[in-house]
Amino acid sequence: MAETEKLVFMVTHGPDHPEHATIPFVMAAAALASDVQVAMGFQADAVLLMKTGVADTVNAPGFPPLAKLLDDVRELGGLLLVCNPCIKSRDIAPDDLVDGAEVVAAGRFIAEITSSTNSLVY
């Protein structure tokens, strides 16, 4: 039996760059719909995308709204991993994050990346 494929998407762009912020969600949803496991890692300004309500404000021309893509990723079982030092430096409390977001440290990101088929950085 073939081993399950897994992709890690490291996201570093926030709401100020709607297209760069949206593309990894499109790719993650497509992977999940293709039975590929997905972990999305949010670092730097991308942690802002995980604040409750922010995804509702991000709409890149030609793409589905980020809020819909976020819902799709969650419904399909994608992991949403948020950098702890990044939220601390932006005064974001874990309770301010969307449902399903998990606050993690570098070790968890490394574990996800080293156990994946491939990783992509956006």
Mean pLDDT: 97
* Structural class by secondary-structure content: alpha/beta
Low-confidence stretches: none
Distance between the termini: 32 Å
Strand order, sheet with most strands: 4-3-2-1-5
Estimate percent helicity: 25-40%
What can you see in these coordinates?
By secondary structure, this protein is α/β, with parallel strands linked by helices. It is 34% helix and 20% strand. The protein contains four helices and five strands, in the order βαβαβαβαβ. It has a five-stranded parallel beta sheet. α1 runs parallel beside α2 (66-75).
Question: How would you concisely characterize the structure shown here?
Answer:
By secondary structure, this protein is of the alpha/beta class. It is built from four helices and five strands, in the order E-H-E-H-E-H-E-H-E. Strands 4-3-2-1-5 form a five-stranded parallel sheet.
